[in-house]
Each structure stands twice: as C-alpha cells, then as structure tokens.
Amino acid sequence: MGDILGVRFHAVHGDHLLPHSRTVLSVGPQVSVFINTFLPRCVVFNNRGLGGEELLTPVTYCAANTSDLECVVQHVKGLYPSAPVLGAGVSLGGMVLLNYLARKRTESGLVAGITISVPWDALKFSSSMEEPLNWLLFNRHITKSLHQILNRHRKILEKVVDVDYVLKARSIREFDERFTSLMFGYSSCMDYYRDASPGKKLPNTAVPILCLNAADDPFSPQTAFPVSIVQDLPNVALVLTAHGGHIAFLQGFFPRGENYMERLFGQFVHAVFEHREEMKQACGIREEQMKD
C-alpha cells in the first residue's frame, strides 16, 4: 500500500508526516487502540482540555461543535494537499465526525468516514443512561469524569460558568444543562441534544460512510438507529450486530486477538484506498462530489 500516514485525533507522534501518504483522521481515543495495525502513521486530534493539555481559552468541546475538527482537516490538507484523508470516530467522536460531514457536505476534505458505536440520538442516549442499571454502571462514572475535567480547568472556566453549581450535577443530563448547553449558546439541554444528534443529518453527507453499532449498546438504544434514513442513502452503510455493546464487538469464547470491529475497520480502509473508484460508483458519487 506504500507509505501510509495516519492522523488520529489524540496527539501527534511517530515519524514525520510524509506528502502523498494516505491519511486517517480518527476522532476518539478508542480508535488509536487498533488503528496502528492498519495505519502506522497517524495523527490524533485531542478535544480541548484532554490529552494532558491545558485550556488556553474558556472553551471546551461538545458533540455538535465541529469547528476544531474543521481546523484540523484544513491544517492537514494545507500541509499535504495530495493525500486522501479518511476520518474515523468512536462514540462521541463519531457524532462529531458525522456532524462535520453533514455540515461540510462536498467540502469536507475527507474521502470517507467510519464510525463505531455512535449514540445516534442524544436525548435517547441520556434517557437510557438514566435507567437504574445504566445509571449505576455508566452515568455516575461519566458524570464524575466530567467533574474531574471541569475541576482540572476550573481557573479558566470559572470566568464563564458557575463551577460550583455545575459540580453539583448528579447526571450527564444535568451536567449538559448546567454547562455544555450554556458553553455553546443553546437555550436548553434539549436544544443541544437535538443539534448534536447526527441521524437525521445523514442525507447531507457526500462521501462513503460505514457505521457500526450493536443492538445491545446502552449508549444508543435500537429505537435510535436511523435505519429508515440509511435505506435511501447509497453512500451510507449501517452495520448492526446483535451483540457488541459499546465499543466491544469481541469474538470467540476466548476473545483474544483481532475482533470484529478491528476486522471491519481494516477491510473498510483497504476498500477506500485500494478500490476508491469502485466505491464511488457503488455509492453513486460523482468526482466533483468527492474532493480530496
């Protein structure tokens, strides 16, 4: 496959970037666990305030905001205009990627996208997380992590929010109501959730997209899957498995080695870079719609 350059959204590492290399933008740290198997050179985009970085301005990140992703894509394309770029996102990172692809349409700078375990409907995700078992297993721990991030950047964030009030939030929904929606100018948490949900925006996308979800994923209930929308979109494939939970997809009685998620990712990357013309034809995409 020649020189391969990977762009992961976490931290720049490894060898220097080479022009004319194939590029992967991955949104979400989980992707980096297995992406090196297929793409030895990658760049990772860290959301603001994560990855050990300090906030320089009182602005964080959310699933609906794609401005930072746009800056990263423009930067990479500015350095290596001839390199085709593939985007990969996991969970919230997948929401950001899909929202970006829908917003930018034919001007995304990406040749394809792949998402793993995307919460398709933010409101249904929040409601699922508030069910007793899910609250015990997930909600309270995620909320605690959000508190820790807020505390880590308290000095700069207290310029724009009442940090003590936000830290009293006992659930993800309360945190989003008191912090995230306010930070990004939404009138309410519900408005933010509606804007963050990528399912209904899929018709606006203009590149091949592969989405992997599991029916038993508590972060995305089955009623949230955009099956009826995807049925009419030749450029979007929604792969649904009976099991796999949230970013699991283990295989075998002793689940060691390559799992289904990794295998699917590798096959899709190969198809995008080695059979690009066939993929464009299958997706009904004209050359002017799929810009590098």
TrEMBL record:
GO annotation terms (biological process): medium-chain fatty acid biosynthetic process; medium-chain fatty acid catabolic process
Active site (UniProt): S91, D217, H246
Gene3D superfamilies cross-referenced by the UniProt entry: alpha/beta hydrolase (3.40.50.1820)
InterPro entries (UniProt xref): AB_hydrolase_1, AB_hydrolase_4_sf, AB_hydrolase_fold, ABHD4
GO MF annotation, one: acetylesterase activity
All copies of domain AB hydrolase-1, residue ranges: 41-252
Full protein name: Phospholipase ABHD3-like
Organism: Pundamilia nyererei
